[in-house]
C-alpha cells in the first residue's frame, strides 16, 4: 500500500541537530494526520550522525539509509527515486533545521490544486558570492526551461510522484544540483505550481561543506550540467 507522503532528507555530519530535526518533522506529519514514511539518507557522515539516527530504529515510519558519500545532489536524487515508489507525494527538505516543519502545512493543505508546491526562502542571509550564484541559477533555469518557480534550488518542495518520477528518470546519477533541473522541468511541463514564502534561519550547528573557490567550482559544474540536461 502506498503512503500519502514520503519525506526525503539528505544528511551529512549533522550529529548536533539531526535528532530534534527528525523528531520535529515526524511530529508535524503526525499532527496533520498524514500517512507518511521518512527517508533519511546519511551520506557517509564522518561524525556520530549514524549513531544518533540509529535511535529511530524502532519506528517503521523512519527509514535510515546509511550510504557511501556521493554528495548532496546525488543523495537527493537517490531519495527521490525511492520516494516516488513509496508515496503519492514526495517532500524534500534539508537536515540543517534552517526551514522549519511548522510551515509545511501551508503546502500540504493546498496540494490538491497543484502538481508542485515550493517554499521559497524568505529572509535568507547570503554572502555576495552566494547571492550572485542564486541569481544566475534562477535566470539560467528560466531561460533554459521556463519560469514558474521562485526559488529554483529551495530545499523545501512538495511534488506529485507521478510528475517527479517522470522527471528524475532523465536526470544522470551524478548531477550536482538536481533540484535546479526539477524546478525547470516542472515549469517546462506547464505544471500547476504554487510558491509560498517560508522563513529561512541561519545555520546554528555544523558547518557549510562548500565554501570559497569550491563554491564557484560547484556552481560552474551545476550550471554546465543543467544546460546539458535541458538540451537532452
TrEMBL record:
A Pfam family the protein falls into: Glycos_transf_2
CDD domains for the chain: DPM_DPG-synthase_like
Residue stretches making up the Glycosyltransferase 2-like domain: 7-130
Domain of life where this protein originates: Bacteria
Protein name, UniProt field: Glycosyltransferase family 2 protein
Source organism per UniProt: Geomesophilobacter sediminis
Amino acid at each position: 500500500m502506498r503512503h500519502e507522503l514520503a519525506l526525503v532528507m539528505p544528511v551529512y555530519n549533522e550529529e548536533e541537530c539531526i535528532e530534534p530535526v527528525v523528531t520535529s518533522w515526524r511530529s508535524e506529519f503526525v499532527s496533520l494526520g498524514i500517512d507518511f514514511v521518512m527517508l533519511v539518507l546519511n551520506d557517509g557522515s564522518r561524525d556520530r550522525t549514524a549513531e544518533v539516527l540509529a535511535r529511530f530504529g524502532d519506528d517503521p515510519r523512519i527509514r535510515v539509509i546509511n550510504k557511501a558519500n556521493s554528495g548532496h545532489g546525488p543523495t537527493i536524487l537517490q531519495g527521490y527515486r525511492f520516494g516516488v515508489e513509496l508515496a503519492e507525494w514526495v517532500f524534500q527538505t534539508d537536515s540543517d533545521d534552517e526551514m522549519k516543519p511548522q510551515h509545511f502545512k501551508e503546502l500540504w493543505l493546498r496540494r490538491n490544486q497543484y502538481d508542485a508546491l515550493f517554499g521559497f526562502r524568505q529572509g535568507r542571509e547570503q554572502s555576495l558570492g552566494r547571492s550572485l550564484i542564486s541569481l544566475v541559477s534562477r535566470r539560467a533555469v528560466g531561460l533554459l526551461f521556463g519560469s514558474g518557480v521562485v526559488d529554483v534550488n529551495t530545499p523545501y518542495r512538495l511534488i506529485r510522484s507521478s510528475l517527479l518520477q517522470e522527471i528524475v528518470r532523465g536526470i544522470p546519477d551524478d548531477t550536482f544540483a538536481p533540484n535546479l533541473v526539477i524546478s525547470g522541468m516542472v515549469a517546462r511541463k506547464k505544471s500547476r505550481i504554487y510558491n509560498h514564502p517560508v522563513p529561512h534561519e541561519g545555520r546554528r550547528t555544523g558547518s557549510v561543506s562548500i565554501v570559497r573557490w569550491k563554491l564557484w567550482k560547484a556552481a560552474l559544474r551545476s550550471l554546465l550540467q543543467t544546460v546539458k540536461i535541458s538540451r537532452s
